[in-house]
Amino acid sequence: KFAIAVQGLQPDFAWVARRKNGEEFPVEVRLRKLALPAPDNDKKTGVLAIVRDLSERKAAETEIKQLEFQLLHAQKMESIGRFAGGLAHDFNNILSAILGYSELAIMETPPDHPLAQPLAIIKKSAEKAAELTRQLLAFSHNKQVLEPQAVDLNSLLDGIAKMLARMIPEDIVIETQTTCRGRQVLADPGQLEQVVMNLAVNAADAMPRGGRLLLGTENLDLHPHALRPGDTIAPGPYVQLTVADTGSGIDPATMERIFEPFFTTKAQGKGTGLGLATVYNIIKQHHGTIQVESTPGHGTTFKVLLPATKYPAKKPPKLEEPMIGGNETILVVDDEPSIQHLVIDILTPLGYSILAASSGQEALTRATTMESVDLLITDLVMPGMRGSELAAQLCAQHPNAAALFMSGYRPEDINEQELGDLTPFLQKPLTPSALAKKVREVLDSRQTTDH
pLDDT digit string (tens) for 386-403? Predict the structure, then answer.
């Protein structure tokens, strides 16, 4: 570089300098040819080196790159969320027909009939698919819907262990170490079960040649001095849930991405990439944390910390009530013919008078010829006229009409102006019992309000 500068060129280059304390830092070096005065008037050539510390500039550039990465990641996740939400909405319409008609068929089929078991399998499969769509909808806004109650994790794990024994290969030994005593967690039991099942199934997949699967609980108290800067949990009593395996382990590169939605290391068709991302979101919503310890070739351990509670255990749920009908007139509006037919087939045997339409405009046209409309059941998101707009115009024609909205989207994922105060709301996929109960509630509430 110096030789080039002597020739009259002006090389600039980056370099790594070292401070007196040995610390290295980035610099920019500029070399310039310089004529040096001499006492004997003999011209001498020198080189002027200008060295500039680039530490602050490099730090700023790094920060900008990180912000750009975060922005791109946020945009990517938003796009994925929109895609997942739209996909789940369409799935819920399809699942409404499968789940609804299978339940209707089961209600009409004696338990000893040859078709009873196949129908039950169809219904169970549809319920599993509906759970997957709920995961997809959760990612559209990165949030799960919680129904918290006091949960005994020991009992939860015991039940899951029995279920897993029928699901995973026999060469995997399941062990439970439930040492938690006197503590419960305030949580959604269905979602905690989903957390454990996802972790356990992943663990089993990591042991194709067999191994040991450990499910455990223990009491853990977090003291203020034990927390590190940046920790998102508060000190206090916790229950630690552990899922450990002796499988293949996770390499560092994969470890950085395991909680990303749609990221999977499984073969095509073997995984959705939603499992661990769902686990992470559920734990986050329960104000807990999840930690991963893994060594390639020596297994993986997931530790979930959940705040403990002193709430008493919830009483067993009441038996499902029989479907109650009526003689009111109901207008059903949905752009999906299968949903129209399902609602008609559920409500007509209960005594209701049902009329159907495929769009908001068709519904308003039909309503002008009707003497009265007691209830409008409409999808919220339809081509053309939205359900909320339809309800407003229909109620202008029939002031005594009530409205029941349904959608494949969750209510919290729908624009507030779209939903507004126009409730109640029924989440798809529809089931006969849920629809019949909600219809009766809305109609009875309308009658109470009228009087």
Answer: 888 999 999 999 999 999
DSSP output for 311-362: PPPPPPPPPPPPP-----EEEEE-S-HHHHHHHHHHHGGGT-EEEEESSHHH
- DSSP label at residue 114: T
Q: Which domains are delineated in the chain?
A: 2-53 (no CATH), 153-309 (3.30.565.10), 329-450 (3.40.50.2300)
- Among 377, 374, 381, 373, which residue's Cα sits nearest to residue 430? 377
Q: Which residues contact 99 (CB under 8 A, 6 or more apart)?
A: 123, 126, 127, 130, 429, 430, 431
3-class state of residue 82 by DSSP: helix
pTM of the model: 0.54
> How many Å apart are CA 365 and CA 137, to the nearest integer?
34
- Using DSSP, state whether 130 is helix, strand or coil: helix
For the chain (451 residues), the mean pLDDT of every run of 10, in chain order, is: 59 83 89 72 72 89 81 72 76 88 90 90 85 67 66 91 86 93 88 88 90 94 74 84 92 77 52 66 88 89 90 55 88 93 94 94 92 92 88 91 87 59 80 93 76 46
- Euclidean distance between CA atoms 95 and 313, whole angstroms: 33
Tokens of residue 422, six digits: 């126009």
Q: pLDDT tens, 98-121?
A: 999 998 999 889 989 999 888 988
**Non-local CB neighbours of 153 within 8 Å, separated by 6+ positions:** 178, 180, 184, 185, 192, 217, 239, 241, 306
Q: Which residue has the tokens 């020596």?
A: 298
> What distance in Å separates the CA atoms of residue 333 and residue 425, rounded to the nearest whole number?
14
Tokens describing residue 189: 């039991």
The total of other beta-carbon atoms located within 10 Å of residue 430's CB is: 24
Please state, in angstroms and rounded to a whole number, the distance separating the CA atoms of residues 8 and 5.
5
Distance CA 261, CA 82 (A): 13
- Of 54, 41, 43, 44, residue with least CA distance to 13: 54
Helix (H, G, I), strand (E, B) or coil at 432: helix
